[in-house]
Amino acid sequence: MKGKAPAKRGLGGPNKSKSNGDSFFNPDTKRRRKGGFRDDDIESGESDQENGYPGSDASSGHGDEDEEIDEYADETAAEKKVRLGKEALQNLMAIEKKRAEEDDGEVEEGKGYEKEGERDSLVARKLMKEQLEESGRLRRDVASRVQKPETGDGFRYLVKHTHPVTAVCLSDDELRGFSASKDGSIVSWDIESGKSERYKWPTDKILKSHGAKDPEGRATKHSKSVLALAVSPDGRYLASGGSDRHIHLWDTRTREHVQAFPGHRGAVSCLAFRHGTSELFSGSFDRSIKIWNVADRTYISTLFGHQSDVLNVDCLRKERVLAVGRDRTMQFFKVPEESRVIFRSSTSALESCCLIDYEDFFSGSDDGSVELRTVQRKKPVDCIRDAHAMPSDIRDEEKDNRKPSNEEAIWQHQELAMVGFVNSMAFAKSGKFLVVGIGKEPRLGRWGKISDAQNGVVIHRLKLSEEDVSKF
User: Fold this and answer.
1) What is d(CA 268, CA 173) in angstroms, rounded to the nearest whole number?
2) Ramachandran angles phi, psi of 373, nearest 5°
3) Does residue 338 carry a pLDDT above 50?
4) For the chain, first and last CA: distance in Å?
5) What is the pLDDT at residue 69?
6) Cross-sheet strand order for the sheet of 329-334
7) Among residues 410, 428, 430, which one has the least CA distance to residue 420?
8) Across the beta sheet with 268-273, what order do the strands follow?
9) In whole angstroms, what is the distance from residue 280 CA to residue 323 CA?
10) Which residue has the higher pLDDT, 280 or 412?
11) What's the order of all strands across the beta sheet hosting 196-198?
12) To the nearest whole percent, how much of the chain has pLDDT over 90?
C-alpha cells in the first residue's frame, strides 16, 4: 500500500489552514483574556501571599479577599494603569485636603466649594509639573527669583588644584561635583563639606586592555591632560576627554577606569550626556561629534558639518544636539532625521552654547557677546554686545589700569569679586548654587596668565524667592 504523501510546507499548504483553527492566530484577544490569560510582564511589586495566589497563606482565606482577587483577575494592563492612576489621584487629593484643614482649621459655611476648587486646581498643577519633569519639558523660571546678594556673600573655595581647572560638572542629585585640570587630575568632591577624592589613572597596559589605542604622531605616551567632563544621569559613570583623543569612562562608586573609547582624530574638547539616557555626545578638534552608548560601551554614529574645531556641545532629553566651533557657526543637529540647522556668526568664533528648550538657546562668542537665538530664525532674537569686556593686554600684569577680562565681568555684574580665568561653570538644576572652575591660564591654551589667581573650584550660593506653583 502506498502511504500518504507528506504535506507540503508553503504558502498554500497546511499552515494556511492551521491559522483558521489555532487559537494563537485568533484575533479575538478579549476572549483569550477572559479565559484566564495573564500578562506575566507586569509586576505589581507585591508578594504572592499578599495577592492570594494558590499555595500562599492568603489563598486559604475567604470573603472580601477572594472577592477582590476575582475582581482584578481579568484586568488588562491598560485597565490596571487607569485604576492605579485613580488611586494615586485620590491619595494626593486626600493629602492636600488634610493639609488645608490643618492650615485653615474649620471651613466657614459657603466657602467649602471654593476651597475644594482651589485644592483640585493645585493638585492638577502638581500632576502637570511631575509629568513635565519626567518628560524633560519642564521650564522653570529661576533667574527672576534670584535675590541680590548681600555684603559678604561671595565665592567659597571647595577644592584646590595644582594646575588650571579645565572642567567641572555636577551629579543630578546635586550632592557631588567633579573637576579636572590640565595636569590630568580628576577629583570628586562633596557639595556641602568639600571633602574630595582623587581618581587614579591606570597604567598604559591597563588602558590598552580597556580599549585605548597607541599614541599617534610624535607622542610616545598617552597625554593625561583633561579638557572635558560629564557625569551620567544615573550618577554611575563619569566620562572624561582630553588631548589623548580618547573618551575615558570611570566608575563613580570605585573611582576606577572601566573603558576607553578611541575614534577621534583630535583632542576631545567637550562632552554631554543626553538627559535620562546613557547616550554620550563628544565633540573634538577633528571637526566631528560622535555618539556613544555608555551602558553598552559601544560606538553609535558620527555627526559631521563643522569646518573647524568643535568647542562645545549641549543637549536635553530628545536626540537633538547643539554644537559651536571655531568656524563661526552654531549647528543644531536632529539625529533621527539626519538633518541640521546652521546659524552663522559674522564676526568671531563661538565658544559656548546652552539649550533652554528645543526652540530657544544661547550662544557666547570670543568677542564677549551673548546672543539669544531660536530655531525659527537665522538671526539672533537679541544680542548683548560686550557683555564681557575685552582686556586691553592680558599679558601685561603690571598695568594697574587694565580693563577687566571677559571672564571677570560677569562677577562684577553680580557685585562679586573673582580673580582668574573662568574655564568652566555648572549651575545646579535647582538653581540654588553655582560652581566655577578657576585657572591662572585659559582652558584651551597658554596665551594669558593671571598670577594672582588660584587654581581650584569655587561655589556661590544663590538665594531664591519662593516658587510660584500657579505657573505650572
Assistant:
1) 26
2) -125, 165
3) yes
4) 83
5) 53
6) 310-315, 320-325, 329-334, 339-344
7) 410
8) 268-273, 279-284, 289-293, 298-303
9) 14
10) 280
11) 165-170, 176-181, 186-190, 196-198
12) 38
CA distances from 290 to 277, 281, 355, 421 (A): 16, 6, 19, 29
Q: Supply 126's cell numbers.
A: 502638581
Stronger pLDDT, 369 or 332, i.e. the higher one: 332
Cβ contacts of 192 within 8 Å, gap of 6 or more: none
CA torsion angle for 46, 50, 55, 60 (degrees, to 10)? Answer: -170
Grid cell for residue 100: 488645608
- Distance between CA 99 and CA 122 in Å, rounded? 12
* Distance set, CA 107 to CA 63, 101, 123, 419 (Å): 40, 8, 19, 58
Cell (9 digits) for 301: 554614529
User: How far apart are the C-alpha atoms of 44 and 52, rounded to whole Å?
Assistant: 13
pLDDT for the residue 276: 86
Q: Within 10 Å of residue 465's Cβ, how many Cβ atoms?
A: 9
Whether 292 and 298 have beta carbons less than 8 Å apart is answered as: yes
Determine what percent of the chain is predicted with pLDDT higher than 70: 66
What is the average pLDDT across 13-23? Answer: 45
Report the distance separating Cα 332 and Cα 313, nearest Å: 10
- Residue-wise pLDDT for 367-400, tens only, equals 888 888 998 888 888 888 877 655 544 444 433 3
One-letter-per-residue 3-state SS of the chain = CCCCCCCCCCCCCHHHHHHHHCHHHCCCHHHHHHCCCCCCCCCCCCCHHHHCCCCCCHHHCCCHHHHHHHHHCCCCHHHHHHHHHHHHHHHHHHHHHHHHHHHHCCCCCCCHHHHHHHHHHHHHHHHHHHHHHHHCCCCCCCHHHECCCCCCCCCEEEEECCCCEEEEEECCCCCEEEEEECCCCEEEEECCCCCEEECCCCCHHHHHHCCCCCCCCCCCCCCCCEEEEEECCCCCEEEEEECCCCEEEEECCCCEEEEEECCCCCCEEEEEECCCCCEEEEEECCCCEEEEECCCCEEEEEECCCCCCEEEEEECCCCEEEEEECCCEEEEEECCCCEEEEEECCCCCEEEEEECCCCEEEEEECCCCEEEEECCCCCCCEEECCCCCCCCCCCCCCCCCCCCCHHHHHHHHCCCCCCCEEEEEEECCCCCEEEEEEECCCCCCCCCCCCCCCCEEEEEECCECCCCHHHC
Grid coordinates standing for 222?
598617552
Nearest to 426 by CA among 417, 416, 436: 436
Side chain identity at residue 332, one-letter code: F
